[in-house]
Specification:
about 425 residues, mainly alpha, three-stranded antiparallel beta sheet, 16 helices, about 50% helix
Length: about 425
């Protein structure tokens, strides 16, 4: 329950959180938070202009395959590096948005540009610009004309990762190399433009929604001290006061109740008047009726000595290698504690009984299959991939009935609240 309510900062998970990712397609005009707020509490619908749909596929997109779990702070550097490599390979400038990438044409009316990229050294800082002259979606027309000049030998650009050392070629050789390399170059150009547009749109949405400040408060609650100290309470109050959407305020209150119990909520409500009685009733229903197994699972985990999936005892025990630890990525999905215990042969039989089998059950699991009923998240998938990468020989498969983000989870809770909320209060 906690992990879907946190802002994720890996590439795939962040795209799903802020734009929605359906069958591998991300619509830069999509807004799951606003859609969920209208679905839960009503309100007028604003129709965004069409366009900006991008396909993200690890099988056909080399950049996405290499950076699917890259953090938000690393994406700007990765996109800049890919664009520089493409310019060096083809001798052409890269269009920041548009052309074969489709561009961004949402309500803000702005096109992506290289100066909008997030800084690789930290969240929200000024971005390093992509070098280059004019932006377009193909080879420079003047350079094309030079290639056609008869009777000349030409320096052939490195367009497909070949030796970058200039070499001379006859006109026929040049034409043959262009025919071989130009399709690959244009595919690479479209790929880079797609990710420049996505990363630029991500930064705009992150800045517009104040997701960095919101995430800092969420992490302080989910991975901070076990008791609700003054610092955590102050962070939660600031996040609620600064949230532009009602759904953001409710998720902070819900996280606070999940972490510290319903008894800690009155202190939060006393300092957060922007939480309406309807918001408080929604949180109370979610904690007391929609999620009754939280307290039971937490008690069971305390008895077994192993944090379970719903035992929110703060930061997970499993540590993964990261490029940088930060206040935005302190929480480790509790799923990893269970997987790590299975790999080490330390799963308590009382909490995780084995299915009777004629074959001997190995003490230490090397192949783990995890099934989430009601859905898992891209953040949990990224954490599981990181765990397997850090433990050679261990493989894991993550299954789920759906892929959740925070808005999808809150919509499900709201549906239960509409159906059973009146009964529980009566």
């Amino acid at each position: 329950m906690v992990t879907p309510l946190l802002v994720p900062w890996t590439y795939e998970a962040l795209v799903h959180e802020v734009f929605g990712l359906h069958n591998g397609r991300a619509d830069l005009c999509g807004d799951p938070w606003a859609d969920a707020e209208r679905a839960i509490w009503g309100g007028s619908s604003t129709q965004a202009s069409a366009g900006g749909t991008h396909v993200l596929s690890e099988s056909s997109d080399a950049f996405f395959r290499a950076h699917v779990d890259a953090t938000y702070g690393d994406l700007g550097e990765a996109v800049s590096r890919a664009a520089r490599g493409l310019r060096e390979a083809g001798g052409a400038s890269v269009s920041a948005a548009g052309g074969s990438a489709g561009g961004e044409s949402c309500a803000d009316g702005k096109s992506a540009s290289s100066r909008d990229l997030p800084n690789a050294e930290g969240f929200g800082s000024a971005a390093p610009s992509l070098e280059g002259g004019k932006a377009h979606d193909g080879l420079d027309t003047n350079e094309d004309a030079q290639w056609a000049a008869p009777g000349k030998s030409h320096a052939v650009p490195n367009m497909a990762g070949r030796d970058a050392t200039p070499r001379t070629a006859t006109l026929d050789q040049t034409h043959r190399m262009l025919a071989e390399d130009l399709p690959a170059y244009r595919r690479g150009l479209a790929e880079v433009e797609r990710h420049v547009a996505l990363v630029t749109a991500l930064r705009r949405r992150v800045d517009a929604r104040g997701l960095l400040a919101l995430s800092e408060a969420e992490q302080a609650i989910a991975a901070g001290p076990a008791a609700p100290g003054a610092g955590v309470l102050e962070a939660a109050v600031r996040a609620i006061s600064g949230a532009s959407l009602r759904i953001a305020r409710v998720r902070i209150a819900l996280l606070y109740g999940l972490r510290f119990g319903a008894g800690a909520l009155p202190a939060l409500y006393a300092r957060a008047p922007s939480l309406s009685p309807g918001d408080r009733d929604f949180v109370a229903f979610a904690l007391g009726h929609a999620l009754p197994d939280v307290a039971l699972a937490a008690a069971r985990a305390r008895l077994s000595g192993l944090p379970g999936l719903y035992a929110y005892a703060g930061r997970g025990t499993v540590r993964l290698p990261r490029a940088r630890d930060s206040v935005y990525t302190a929480h480790v999905p509790p799923l990893l504690d269970v997987v790590d215990a299975a790999v080490r042969g330390r799963l308590p039989p009382a909490s995780f009984p084995a299915v009777p089998s004629a074959e001997p059950i190995p003490e230490r699991a090397q192949e783990v299959v995890v099934l989430f009923v009601n859905g898992s998240t891209h953040a949990e998938a990224a954490a599981l991939r990181g765990y397997c990468a850090a433990h050679p020989g261990v493989s894991a498969v993550l299954l789920g009935t759906s892929v959740l983000n925070s808005s999808a989870l809150l919509c499900e809770l709201a549906s239960l609240h509409r159906r059973f909320g009146a009964q529980s209060s009566g």
